[in-house]
Structures are given as structure tokens and as C-alpha cells.
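Researcher: We're teaching a course module on how sequence relates to structure. For the next exercise, students receive a sequence and then see the predicted structure as C-alpha cells, so they can try to spot secondary structure elements on their own. Here is the exercise chain.
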Amino acid sequence: MILLSHPTGNEFVREALVAFDQAGLLEEFWTAISWNPKSAVNRKLPKSLRDFLGRRSFPESVRSRTHTLPVREALRLLAGAAGLSSRHETGALSIDAVFRELDQKVATRLRKTQKLRAVYAYEDGALESFRAAKDLNISRLYDLPIGYWRVGQQIFAEEAEREPQWASTLTGTLDSPEKLARKDEELRLASRVIVASTFTKQTLVDSPCTAKIDLVPYGAPPPISDEITRPSSKLKVLFAGSLGQRKGLSYLLAAVEKLGQAAELTLLGRKVATDCAPLESAVRKYRWLPTLAHADVLREMQSHDVLVLPSLFEGFGLVILEAMSQGTPVIATDHTAGPDVIENGLDGFIVPIRSVDAIADKLDLLARSPESLMSMKRAAKAKARSLAWEGYRQRLVEVAREVMER
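Model: And here is the predicted structure for the students to work with:
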């Protein structure tokens, strides 16, 4: 039986829970906050707060096996809503403190129960859990949602030199040597490492990982409707993700500038920093949506012609499959899962990182040929339909069973 832990949860954590639950493998789930959207309290809250808390809800079938540590995370969220920030990594209300607290509690739990055969944990939240599990001869499945940190640090250093005005948004450069050493120790302790993209797997070549690495790609959600939005007079371009330079945002902005009046841009996501002048200029110039409920994100994707994900360093880029599932083709770099799911020129495009010209050329091609764009929209939707979450769940269970049988 498996104990799965993650302090905040997201779409792929929920799908992992469903996978292990349906396979009869889930013993316990540990997280910070687990919200019940069917509670009487929830019905009395304003929609914005219901949507916010809904991101911390998990499958009803696992509720009885869910353990929570809500206090620190609730205080962190309240502080953020009030415009207060905690010191990066070391602050009592930092996200790192939330990860470490949960990790320690899970380690304590492992030493008190005899029911578990495996612990499934994620980067930055696995060290103490894995140490305890190793002492107890419990299998350790390590989910790495993004590329290996050394590769990221190299890219960020190059980027800070290339685009100094965007350097403050490269928050990965703030991690201490102690935190980076913990990441390496988590990799060393893992019995098996699970990644979602070929790019992430390639970044681990020079890492301390000695365990087998399994590629388990994420899945696509179902379409919200059968409708495919026809192109209008202007190409409607969407960016979805954190607004910062790890996502290659400056290159997209420059590409859209090259198209002039032929395209209009929507930026969907929160700002990574508040002291980046070109980012502040961009959110004033273009349509900006800081946050939306997941269903509304999918509606935005459906209403656009193309999504661009020009990431420099990514683990997968779930927005790729989310957009494709709604009939919106994607232009993505080869530092994402794009090469794993996009057939270049058929249901989207793959471009090199840091290439304004490549992005602009593909946008111009779509803007000039509405019929080609419609064909690509249909192909993107069909591709996503063949890559549903069911495949992710099935493969994840196969890996877990293999590890536990050993």
C-alpha cells in the first residue's frame, strides 16, 4: 500500500490519487489543506473564494484517508492575500517551510505504521520521508515535475546575462546551496524516479540519480464542448502560466510586437515579481488575467486561436494538452513536453528556445492562413483526445506495482 504526500496538490497529484485509489493501492494521502466543496460552509462563500478553495479539493473517495496540516499553509495564503510575503525558503510562512513540515510529519508517520510498502513524494518534499522509508525498507517513488536543478541554474545564469531586465523573475536562482543539496539527496534516496517529459529525463543525465527513470506523461482533460472557435480578423494569442522569464515570456512579447496589428495577446497568470519593468509594461499593454478557475481557463483556451509556451526550462507544461483538448494548437519550445505530444506542423509547432523569429514566423503563418489554422485546431483536439488522463493513471499504477513487487 502507498502513502502519497504533496502539500498543495494540483491536477497531476489528483490524477495520481485517483490512479492509486482505483487500483486499490492508496493507504493514505497527506497534504496541507483538503477542502470539501460540498460542505455547507462552501455554499455560503462568494464564488471567487469557492473557486480558490476548490483548488485544494481532492477526490471524495480518498477523503477518509486524507491527513492534513492546515495551519501554516492557511496562514501563508492569508498573508499572501494581504500583500505580505515571507522570506524565501527560510521564512516561517514560506512555501519551503510548508513542504518541510509535511515531509517531517510523513517521516514520523512512516515510523509508526506497518501497513505501507511505498511512499510517493515530490521534489522538495521527500527528504525526511525517504530517509525514514529507507530505514524501514519501504520503496520510495520520487516524482520530479521539472528538470534537474543544475541544468536550470545554467539556463537561468545565461538568461540573466541575456535579458538583465527580466532577471528578478528568475526565482530559481534564489535557492540556497542547502536546498539544492537536499534535492540531490532526494534523488539519491529514490527507489524509482518518475518524470513526465523526455526533456526532464534528459536533464538527469549528469545528476546523482542512480534509480531507474520512468517516463509517465501527463494527460489531457476532456473538451468543455465540441465547438472549435473559428479564427477572426486578428490572431488571438494566449499565454498561460507564471509571468516570468523561466517561461521565456520576453521572447513571446517581442514576437507579438513583430506582428503588429495582426495579433492580439492575452496573458493568463500571476506575476512572478513586481520589480520587473518590461513585465509591468506588458500587463498594462495587453489583456491580463491574473487568475481563473480551471474551468474558466479551459474556456479562455477554447476562445483563442493559439497558445504559445516559449519556456526555457519546463517539466511538462500541462497547458499544452489543456489547450489542445479545447481545439487550440500550441507553439512550444523543445524544453517542454512539446516534442512528446505535438506533431510539428500538424497540430502545433516546436520552436527553439529564445527564438523571437521562430515564434513570430509561426504566428504569422497562422494569421495569414485561417483554413490552415482551422485544420490545425481540429488536429490538436483529436491528438488530445488520444492522450487522456486514463493513460497516465494506468502507466503510473504499472510503475508502482513493479517497484513494490521488487
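Model: If you want an answer key for the exercise: The longest helix spans residues 389-405. Residues 235-385 form a domain with the Rossmann fold fold (CATH 3.40.50.2000).
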